[in-house]
Design goal:
- With 186 residues, the protein is α/β, with parallel strands linked by helices.
- It has a single domain (2-185), classed as Rossmann fold.
- It is built from five helices and eleven strands; from the N terminus they run E-H-E-E-H-H-E-H-E-E-E-E-E-E-E-H.
- Strands 2-1-3-4-11-10-9 form a seven-stranded mixed beta sheet, sandwiched between helices.
- It starts with a strand and ends with a helix.
- The structure holds glutamine (GLN).
- Residues 45-48, 78-79, 82, 99-100, 127-128, 130 line the site of glutamine.
- Keywords: Glutamine amidotransferase, Hydrolase, Lyase, Pyridoxal phosphate, Transferase.
- This is Pyridoxal 5'-phosphate synthase subunit PdxT.
- Its EC number is 4.3.3.6, 3.5.1.2.
Length: 186
Amino acid sequence: MKIGVLALQGAVSEHLAQLQQCGVTGRPVKTPADLAGLDGLVLPGGESTTIRKLLVRENLLAPLQELVKQGFPIFGTCAGLVLLAQPESLNGIKGTMIRNGFGRQRESFEADINVAGWSKPFHGVFIRAPYFETVGDAAKPLATLPDGRIVAAVQGNILVTAFHPELTADHRFHQYFIDQLVKTAS
Ligand SMILES: NC(=O)CC[C@H](N)C(=O)O
């Protein structure tokens, strides 16, 4: 199994390390040719407007839009969630998404969050994070803050978290992506 990590900006090596923890070799993706032979793709955090510009410049936006249409497994964290939720970007998950949704005072914070079906909470690291107010009928919220903001969700083969699992030692989200999305798709 090969999983790519979009390597235009953001915490690329941390995602590669998490995949390694799951026993999977990751490959940095910088060009359309790097997508060949992959079974799944991770979109790291960073700044979604910058990543989008780089995707256009590197001729990666159209190939990624095509992969989304084909139901290819993609896991987006933070800015990756933003790109997957924007209809004009990757259009991979429907919902009302609020960018930088926690405002200035809570630009960055950490919170233990409960994930549907998991016995132990997951430590969420939020950095200028987005959230979903609501998700579409085809999407399923996986984690919701006590105030109702949706911070992890899945729609078909698209998994998104508003927080950064790659910045913790806990690789359960990467494992979930591999077991529930990548393995069932390939
Ligand atoms: N840590 C992050 O990925 C921040 C995301 C950023 N605020 C955006 O909207 O793109």
